[in-house]
Amino acid sequence: MPIEVEVRSWISPSMQEKIRKKLARMRLLRSGKSLDLYYDTADFALLRHPQMVFFRLRERRLLQVKFDETTAPDQTPTCIEREFSLDMDRVFQELHELLQTFLPNWQPAPRWQELLERNALEELVRIDKHRRVYTDGPVIISLDNVTDLGQFIEVEINCPEGADTREAQAQVEKILAELGGTPLKAGYFEMYVYSHKHEVYQLIPGRFQVEEALPPIRSWKGTR
Question: Do 103 and 45 form a contact (C-beta atoms < 8 A)?
Fold first, then answer.
């Protein structure tokens, strides 16, 4: 599986024209609604895991598991993502084998709903957005209008697993800076729990926490 090297920024009014000019030179790959459903146990066993595991269903057809690669204590871990297709609601054995490494009491099940029931998984967060995706060679730029959060831009390059990602990281940061963006540490999941589920947000490590000085954060204050 490739490693996603990405940066994300809230879209400020001053960025609009620069973004328009940049996208005019890129190819529109797709546009449409996107829905991510995140699942965990009632006591947040996946989020509490030392490797901080995210388990989500994307577009009701892709099961994705994101987790920190095991590293030395003084190193920033790399995020690894594994993706599995839901085939006619059937769940593949490889997914069960992966989740058993995080939850020793994991119970395999052949069907999606049965998997949720056997392992007491509950919907934790729902991220509903409209996304437009543009490409230019290895560079992917997405414009997201996220329900309850606002408008964001994401610049991404996919690297082979195990590759040195520093060059790709520098490239996506350079592109975002040219567009006038400010990189966010937090993803949409972290932003949502910051504003809607404070008890979950307490489990988020500092490297993913919301920068409270950024403009869109002020509009969320009333929802906490």
Answer: yes
Domains belonging to the chain, first-starting first, are: 3-223 (2.40.320.10)
**How many Å apart are CA 15 and CA 12, to the nearest integer?**
5
Pairing of strands 62-68, 54-58: antiparallel
Residue located via tokens 């790709």: 168
78-120: pLDDT as tens digits:
788 899 998 777 888 999 999 999 999 999 999 999 999 999 9
The whole-angstrom separation of Cα 199 and Cα 221 is 16
Query: Which tokens hold the place of 46?
Result: 């996946």
Sheet holding 54-58, edge to edge: 3-10, 150-159, 139-146, 122-136, 27-40, 54-58, 62-68, 79-85
Alpha-carbon span 121 to 138, nearest angstrom: 36
Strand runs (DSSP E) across 15-149, as ranges? 27-40, 54-58, 62-68, 79-85, 122-136, 139-146
